[in-house]
Amino acid sequence: MTLRRILTAAAAAALLASTAQPALAQAQPKLREAQIRPAVSSVEGGLWDMSDQMENHVKASAEVNKDPQLNAFVKTVLCKVATEYCGEMRLYVLDRPELNASAAPNGYVDVNSGLLLRAATEDELAFVLAHEVTHFARSHTLERYRQTKQTATAGMILGMGLGIATGGGSLVSDLVYLGAIASLMSYNREQEGEADTLGYGRATKAGYAKGAGAAMWSDVIAETRSSDFPKTRNSEARASIFRTHPITAERVAALQAMGGGDTARDVAAEKKYRAVIRPHLAAWLKDDLRRRDYGQSLYVIDRLSKLGEDMGVLEFYRGEAYRQRRSEGDGAKALEAYKRAVASADVPVAAWRELGEAARKAGDKAAARQAFQTYLDRAPQAQDRWIVESSLKTVQES
Ligand SMILES: [Zn+2]
What we know:
The protein is mainly alpha-helical. Helix content is 64%, strand content 3%.
């Protein structure tokens, strides 16, 4: 379906909704039926079209992670908690560093690598997916639409429809349009509480650990407080890097009460989960640094380090976080992290190069020489070989 057609349908849906308000006012607390595509002239049909549009955008994106093993794993976890809805869900694992996941009305589900990096166990991933499935099962997007249709979002959708009628349809309106569906997927406090409670029920029914949700959300809050940016650190009410799902201490307490206070993580479960994400760990940490919130990245690295595995990779990226942040004392911390990295068998070869640079900056020529030379020995085909060779010359004895 073309964008024009979709936008027109959405505008029609918005118009229909505004005239049919009394009939829609009573939202029943029931679960949605199995997949039946709603009529295009209905509000729900409009939302499905918007979701299709979002899905088409993602499909064409280079961010889709196509690792078959990883996809199969996440799909299995999703299906365990989605149960009756599994068959109508299309999963996309995305290499995006932001902590997020969503389940759109048409069955489109995305799971960001930022979530996979932060979950400590399969149980925690399952809890978040069960939370998303609940938003889907309870048609929260539709409910949100009904709640907000007198406000900016509905106006935006209508405005876009009118833009099309007068010959619009540029890239700008396309982006605004995606913004509109995103804003409908930004849920309110009651919906979040319900997604936690019913999601908890789904996940534990599937056999997942009772404390997983509370453990996951506690970590998210702690990460928020580790931010380099005061605005993020102090955003108590919306303590949220999980933007569409503001997480509060209140929600953590509610989950802890449901789980009987047990939030201890099972080390065996952590090791098992780490083995699944290990092939992507370095790439996802590199992506995370692109967010340029090094305080948060360092929190994530600390959490991942507790297991005592992958220390070469983790210490290298800890060093990278300090090197890139450049706050006072960060240079020395980067140097120490690179030193620890090269002491691990799984060290990325780039750690030798960075150790060389850090040692050179610290005035330790001998250590710099040795590190640069090790890099050149271990990465004979490296594209930046000539740069490292020239760096090496600057620390040669005269
Ligand atoms: Zn949510």
